[in-house]
Amino acid sequence: xxxxxITRFGGPEVLEVVDIAEPEAGAxxxxxxxxxxxxxxADTHQIENSYLAAQQLPLVPGAxxxxxxxxxxxxxxxxxxxxGYAEKAxxxxxxxxxxxxxxxxxxxxxxxxxxxxxxxLLRTSAHxxxxxxxxxIAGAGGVGSLAVQLAKRWGAGRIIATAxxxxxxxxTEELGAxxxxxxxxxxxxxxxxxxxxxxxxxxxxxxxxxxxxxxxxFAGSLSALAPFGRxxxxxxAARQETKAVPPGxxxxxxxxxxxxxxxxxxxxxQLLDAAMGELLPMVADGSLRPIxxxxxxxxxxxxxxQDLLARRTTGKLVLDPAx
Length: 323
Hints:
- By secondary structure, this protein is an alpha/beta fold.
- It folds into two domains: 2-113 and 267-320, Medium-chain alcohol dehydrogenases, catalytic domain (Quinone Oxidoreductase, Chain A, domain 1), CATH 3.90.180.10; 129-259, 3-Layer(aba) Sandwich (Rossmann fold).
- The protein contains nine helices and 15 strands.
- Strands 3, 4, 5, 6, 7, 14 and 15 form a seven-stranded mixed β-sheet that branches.
- Helix 7 (247-251) links the parallel strand 12 and strand 13 (256-259).
- It is globular.
């Protein structure tokens, strides 16, 4: 079968389309024909071996797919330990969910990892209460665009989104953000970014920040928190070391810093079932709008990663294994 494989760590240049043997399903697993594979920002870390878990070579990237069982059956969307960038993939049965009629492959992929992340960031980690202000870093991205909508749906007070271009900032407002901030303000001085977030919140500190960049954006976001505010960190897009947070800095305003990684939910399938059981019906009835950012042929996987790293994309990116 055709698949994307890496045999050395690095950037998009290490992604190679090759022919390899089909994977074999074990107990409690099913082999699927992949119709569409999802791309996530974490994949760019995975191929560098710079993410949270060490990777082993050779490696077929890809943590999500939509497909049908080999030999026939219902279309499902699923999460994987790896191997999604391929014509066939093996998934654990407890990590797949039927895709409702009327929901496209791209829409299903937008919610299975990024949507479930947004759901848990707000519900499980931040414990969003009605009326609280929410800052969504990278509000036009795969997680951010869904988090803005979910925060609005669940009664957030003022929603502030950051995005790197006027077009992306306009999109976040269309999705429900009340104000926007350019994250480039954090490049030189995190205090400037803190001031912009507070200004966007009517001059007041904010209650919740969903943060996936690190570096100055993390520092500026933490300083913007109100007493009892929560910063939930779920990414390291800036690839910058973030300084340790002294306990005193948290105690001074009763602030909290919470880490989240969706991989831990895979050991508790009920957490994923709760998210997917709500998200997929919302997409089906039109109350949640996944933003589809582009469909790339498998043969153009390098272009997809380059576009993602260069911030040229919006919403969910996917691969077509048939091309």
